Fold this protein.
Amino acid sequence: MARKRVYRSKKKLGQVPGSVIYTGERSKPKLSLEAFDYTKQNCVEKELQNIEESFQFKHTDSITWININGLNYVTEIEKLGQHYNIHPLVLEDIVNIAQRPKIDEHENYLFIVLKMLYYDKDQNIVSEQVSFILGKNYVLSFQESEGDVFDSVRDRLRHAKGRVRNMEADYLLYTLIDAIVDHYFSVIEILGDKIEDFETKIFSGHIEDDASRSIQDLKREILRVRRSIFPLREIIGRIEKNDNKLIHQNTITYYRDIYDHLIQVSENIDIYREMIWSLMDMYMTTISNKMNEVMKVLTIMATIFIPLTFIVGVYGMNFQHMPELQYKNGYFIVWGVMVAIFIGLVYYFKRKKWL
Amino acid sequence: MARKRVYRSKKKLGQVPGSVIYTGERSKPKLSLEAFDYTKQNCVEKELQNIEESFQFKHTDSITWININGLNYVTEIEKLGQHYNIHPLVLEDIVNIAQRPKIDEHENYLFIVLKMLYYDKDQNIVSEQVSFILGKNYVLSFQESEGDVFDSVRDRLRHAKGRVRNMEADYLLYTLIDAIVDHYFSVIEILGDKIEDFETKIFSGHIEDDASRSIQDLKREILRVRRSIFPLREIIGRIEKNDNKLIHQNTITYYRDIYDHLIQVSENIDIYREMIWSLMDMYMTTISNKMNEVMKVLTIMATIFIPLTFIVGVYGMNFQHMPELQYKNGYFIVWGVMVAIFIGLVYYFKRKKWL
Amino acid sequence: MARKRVYRSKKKLGQVPGSVIYTGERSKPKLSLEAFDYTKQNCVEKELQNIEESFQFKHTDSITWININGLNYVTEIEKLGQHYNIHPLVLEDIVNIAQRPKIDEHENYLFIVLKMLYYDKDQNIVSEQVSFILGKNYVLSFQESEGDVFDSVRDRLRHAKGRVRNMEADYLLYTLIDAIVDHYFSVIEILGDKIEDFETKIFSGHIEDDASRSIQDLKREILRVRRSIFPLREIIGRIEKNDNKLIHQNTITYYRDIYDHLIQVSENIDIYREMIWSLMDMYMTTISNKMNEVMKVLTIMATIFIPLTFIVGVYGMNFQHMPELQYKNGYFIVWGVMVAIFIGLVYYFKRKKWL
Amino acid sequence: MARKRVYRSKKKLGQVPGSVIYTGERSKPKLSLEAFDYTKQNCVEKELQNIEESFQFKHTDSITWININGLNYVTEIEKLGQHYNIHPLVLEDIVNIAQRPKIDEHENYLFIVLKMLYYDKDQNIVSEQVSFILGKNYVLSFQESEGDVFDSVRDRLRHAKGRVRNMEADYLLYTLIDAIVDHYFSVIEILGDKIEDFETKIFSGHIEDDASRSIQDLKREILRVRRSIFPLREIIGRIEKNDNKLIHQNTITYYRDIYDHLIQVSENIDIYREMIWSLMDMYMTTISNKMNEVMKVLTIMATIFIPLTFIVGVYGMNFQHMPELQYKNGYFIVWGVMVAIFIGLVYYFKRKKWL
Amino acid sequence: MARKRVYRSKKKLGQVPGSVIYTGERSKPKLSLEAFDYTKQNCVEKELQNIEESFQFKHTDSITWININGLNYVTEIEKLGQHYNIHPLVLEDIVNIAQRPKIDEHENYLFIVLKMLYYDKDQNIVSEQVSFILGKNYVLSFQESEGDVFDSVRDRLRHAKGRVRNMEADYLLYTLIDAIVDHYFSVIEILGDKIEDFETKIFSGHIEDDASRSIQDLKREILRVRRSIFPLREIIGRIEKNDNKLIHQNTITYYRDIYDHLIQVSENIDIYREMIWSLMDMYMTTISNKMNEVMKVLTIMATIFIPLTFIVGVYGMNFQHMPELQYKNGYFIVWGVMVAIFIGLVYYFKRKKWL
């Protein structure tokens, strides 16, 4: 997850409320628009050239999915919003990429903001905001930039796989959200691998000095993933319980399925969280164990040689009357004594399990 | 608990929802089907050769328990599902072994998923998914593979022990769930033994270097056991409170009994959890105590011999005018002084309780 | 608290539900039965020889308290159960000593299980299961073995102290539960003393090496006491709020009083819990302080004598041209320098507050 | 807070419930009774000689405040209770100084127990139980001993300051409770000062060896203050929400004001709590930092002089053929080498920021 | 945040309740009054000379915002209060700067207290109390002193930017609160930067000795920010849910928007909180890592030179019969042995990754 970007709120101080202002980074790729217009029999897929082309779909009987990539194109989004009668505050939320996941029920449409999570090539979590507007016969989706997790949905629309072509717009919305939630699983799976790799590293002693930084980063990562995913639970729970006329009775079962998956993701996140919180303790014991080892080496060396050095010091004294010095085998006797002390101390350390 | 397998979600990215796809490992043993068909007077036990043989029991008056081992045989399970009118999403849940424990009430049947826990020969917790479908006069059970905790139930059915032959299908379901919950007790008992053994090891100082890894593994194990067991509490609570027509009034008391047991298991799990969380602290103090001991040895040795070595160094100097060197008993006096210092320091350390 | 015994569930795997099987230890003392049968005017106390003698009290107008010691006498308890129309599941709970405290309302009686706590002679907490059955005009109580906390109640019955002889059976039940709850206070008081003694020990530095084991044991002890006491709060709360016809309006106030006491006990338990959880930290700092002291001694000794030893080493060299060696007072000058260094270092350590 | 006294429950084992028994310490000062009897126009203040003098106020139209100091005078309190129709269980609670703060609504009066907290001269928190009985036109207050926080209330009564003389008894009760809650603020302020002083001490390194004991004592203190104050929140909340006929509509606003203050006190307590809980960690790092410093001194000294001592040792050897010994400037060259090594090592330590 | 000032309650002991007493510091700047009186067409901005000038706006049809800086001018505030019929307890709360954020609904106005947070030039958080009174056609705002976060609102009023001139007083109140909440974002952003800078410092090892003090200060800061912001959530939630006639239906959406922002701020605060709580652990590991490094240097030096010093000591002995001393190359052989030992030990430490 890009460090600086994500948890800055980028709230524009002093702005008039309801003004549609893009809060992401300025260097965004070009606008890209695509439309899927389908009935049970037929499915038209189209790359749109400008926002006006999307207006025609509003009043057709067919179901339409219009996907807009590029939240920085605020004028286009405002035009679309006017045509589809979207409230200005909703448009403001769509382009404010720091928006918390939420659901808003309006008279003729349902507005849902959520976070799409995936790992990029550098194994950083990318959190991209996706907004949906569900109308009677259309779904509008807004993404920060191109590249998403909806390819399987496109495929199913094109080739009439599964139920999606036989159902209403609410089922299309379900498949889109389901695709996002499916990716949550792979994100936490990779996160889980990271944690386990890290654990293994710590246990094997191959730890760098910035291990505690890595732990702190893992903590931050899981807290952010958590913050992206947990509010969605409540949102889906509300869809499931409500009797909004845009969500049909037979689709509810599918939303309940998403809800189940979210509970599962949440539980895994909380388990990982507890694991990460324990890592620091583990790291601490590893450090202490290492220090113990260092200390043992020092202690063993010092304890063995300090008395021996004392003994040789004794016979280095220059007293005129030191009887031992005249002994013929004095030198060898001293060696014998020293070897005996050496063996005794080594045995002592063996028994203490220090060697 | 197999490390990698259990908490991977294995959610199949991009699949059409409602498609019945087995998510476990591929190397599963063969399909095995067994049926118990019984009335108060009679009980027929039968090993079925194919799934079609099980269809006959649907419309009999007798109570039938059909047990299917082998969730990888999805076509067979789909056939059974069609015959018994099971919703495709339910079938999907049955073969998705990462399914969280849950209960779903359908018009003509009740669907329950839960986790069977037992220790295998290597003392690893095995978590196997078991699904139940309770109909008017039948119970279908689905297990990942052969080998389960239901032998006592089979025995009671065969020999008409207890109440089970006199009661309806809901009581049969009760005895099956009860058998699973009973095994939770033995699982946490073994877990408890592991924790206490580990504590004892830590206290006695016989700890390996990977103690903190073992603690982390224990933490993970208890978190997973917890996750398998806690949702069941809610499920049984719902059975107990609801007025589902498939659960008769006089059976409710028995479900309440299971509920009681689950509360008890949960409390034990939470106590073990707190114990495990404390283990790391204990381990830390053990390490520190050991280091203290090492340091003491070093300090005692160094403190005693460093001054003595200094003294012998003094008389190793080569000054021309060192009056002591000429003293007749100089050498012996120095020895006397050194012995005095030695005794003094030993006494000092004794008083400090370091020796 | 006997280590092994209490938190083993001893759930009998594969047993028919509703079978009345004693789960405690086998070496139980003999059955002992006592009965108090009283009216406002009169109180008969009787040691019963067999269970059948207790049957006569069921239909008298007087209030009867029958106390059964010895849960291993299951046949006797089943006989009693049949005579008083007790449900088999209730009987199962009575003799299952791992039963969690609970209340069950049946048509003609109220069933309550709770834990009696007291310290035995070895200062171990004894947790004994006590079950009560409150009928219209009788209270049956079941205990694991002889010896209990009800002597004051017996005394009041015998000598018509207080209100007990003037009230109904529900008041008798109240006095019995009150006696148990009163003992909770003394248990946590002793537990509190243990914690404070332990704190004092740690602070005074007189700690054994198994201090962290003692802390872990204290943790376990308080967790178990908590588990025995906390569910009772809910039970009494339910009695207080319900309109069970067996509990009269004017007795409710007394149950509310018990509830108050239980809240008070619970608060104390939670305070002790926080205290115990802090003990490990305290112990850790004590260890670290000790190591600091050890290190200081080593450092002071080494820092003072290492430079001095170097100096004497210098003048032990055998160079032919070492002018100092010829100085008349060279030896004494070196001594002077060494004394100066010694004093300087001692002063330095004094200023650092290490000495 | 007196260590032993406060959290002992002093529950009298085996006592008849409802017996009015004083549970505080026996060496209590004499009984002291005072009465304020006032109307809008007039206020009579009177020191009562015996409890019977207080009976006259029951049926006057004026508002009366009778304050009883000395809970050990149980007979007097029982007499008063009989005259004012107080329930025996209420009287029991009044004289049981381990009573948890609570409110009891009776038909003709409201009974409130709470804790008055203040610091005595030795800066120990004194927790004194105060009970109030609010009747239609009177307030009875019971305190453990003389000395309280009500002087400002007395002053306002005497000189008709503020609203108190124009309002009913419920407003008088409000001013009394308000005075107590006001003192909570000063108690936690002093507690806050203690914590900050302690922090400053730890940071400045001027810590005694019993720092961890002081931290433990602070923890205990805040836990007890918390326990005295938190239940009151609920009590006042209940007064504010209820429609007890003794509390008039226009007084409710004032009770809500107390409630606000209690929330504020509680928040401060919880902040202090978190601060104290962090102190131990801080202390630990301080210890570790100190040890680091000790170790550095040792390491620097040893690292510099050990190689030098080795060098001088080399030239202290007595080999017959050691060419360096004959060099004219050998001695001075060795000195040069040693000085170079010394400077090199000092530079190394400087670069490592150890010096 | 000024250390001493903020969390002292400054509750005036013994004061008559309802007395309007300023609780801030005495050295406050002069009173400053400003008024904005506007309709859709027109906006009059005026610096008021005295409080009486503000009275005229009460009965105009236009919307009026009167902003009072200087809570120490209690007489002026009381005059204003009387003119606008504000309850004395409300006035007391306005000038009590330790007031907790709250909302009070009165018959003709709504009273809201909240905290304005911003960083001053020294990067200390300033927490200033702001109170609002919303009447039918006016908003009164009370600030401790000049300088606030409302300049963007003033600008919009002057130049009729956005919706504010077309809407009622409730929308004006919304824009004012919104401006305050917007500043919460920048406050927590700066706090976030502080935490990250601190983390970076700790990781890079450039930590001062008072690092643990800084961590404690960060903890305190975040706890206070939390306490200022969290109650506001509930306040706005109540506005949003209630049907107060002063808040129009079409403004509710805007308040819900604030609520959303507050949830977002709260989540960020809680993430930062967890981060700060981890900092101490990180700091601890950094200290331990440093000590490890120190110990390694010592151990390496000592382990290498202690045996060498022993060897040279051996040949410094003065025995008459030491054959090695006569060897021609004895001296060089000893050097060879010592170099070999040196190389062996260096290799050993390399393999252990200590070098």
